[in-house]
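INPUT
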Amino acid sequence: MGVELLYPMRTYLIVSSDGERTNVMAADWVVPLSHEPFMVGVVISPKRLTYEFIEKTGEFVVAVPTLDLKMKVWKAGTVSGRDEDKSTLFKFVPSAKVGVPSIEECVANLECRVVEKKEYGDHVFIAAEVLHSTYADFAFDGGARIDRIRFLAHTWGRAATFDTRYY
Amino acid sequence: MGVELLYPMRTYLIVSSDGERTNVMAADWVVPLSHEPFMVGVVISPKRLTYEFIEKTGEFVVAVPTLDLKMKVWKAGTVSGRDEDKSTLFKFVPSAKVGVPSIEECVANLECRVVEKKEYGDHVFIAAEVLHSTYADFAFDGGARIDRIRFLAHTWGRAATFDTRYY
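OUTPUT
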């Protein structure tokens, strides 16, 4: 038994670009690193097209999908951008501070610039500063509003959301 | 708006020791780093007693609490071990590969040895190898079983768990 002991975990989307093509992958291994400055860490396999794109531009967007997007997120997490153009899955809008676009359907988009990369075992940890973020006020009013929004999580393969009964 | 855009997140417990005292803190900022070897990252404020203890021993345990422990987890996350002995909150059992104990009430305990530390903004990222783990088979049978176990999460201040309706 390994990383599944930390599951269920949230699932996010990582948007990246090589300047021409835009790619989206699903990623659970995302963690806040600092409040001030606002920084996040993402952990990605170096085999991923997303990794290759981030290497090129030093930028990416962490987008926050909701449960209603689960089939698209599933596809983003199981099909490689090398085999299929995943840019048609979502509607992109320009970001404010990075060249990589944000996802319109998502309740938040964090525009990130890479600060440092470090290999650990079979993955690479990427520390990044969040230069700008956009979000739906409705979803983050006094904290994440699980009574209003079905935030997406998964249980090592299956989609889940949060139960408001224990709010 | 900052890190709350990534919430709700799971809440874990970090057990640490200075060789004499055992301390427990609640931590949301925990992330898998690698499958092989199994590694995890934890992000902790250098002001925490837990950080001081981990500096001393190079070891810690990531324990996985369930919703029924939420009041104890809340206390572990809001009261400093400098002000109160939090070792009475949980029942400890010896770990197999580290000197820091595991928590009996938790559904999993990951015994960790620090590999590297790196400061990012107001927190320190600690990369660690998981030397050994113990867990309840019932909770992790073919992935995290949210149909059986109420895994703890929180929504920027309040407790939540996962909804099996969307399993």
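end of record. Chain B touches chain A through 64 residues (CB under 8 Å).
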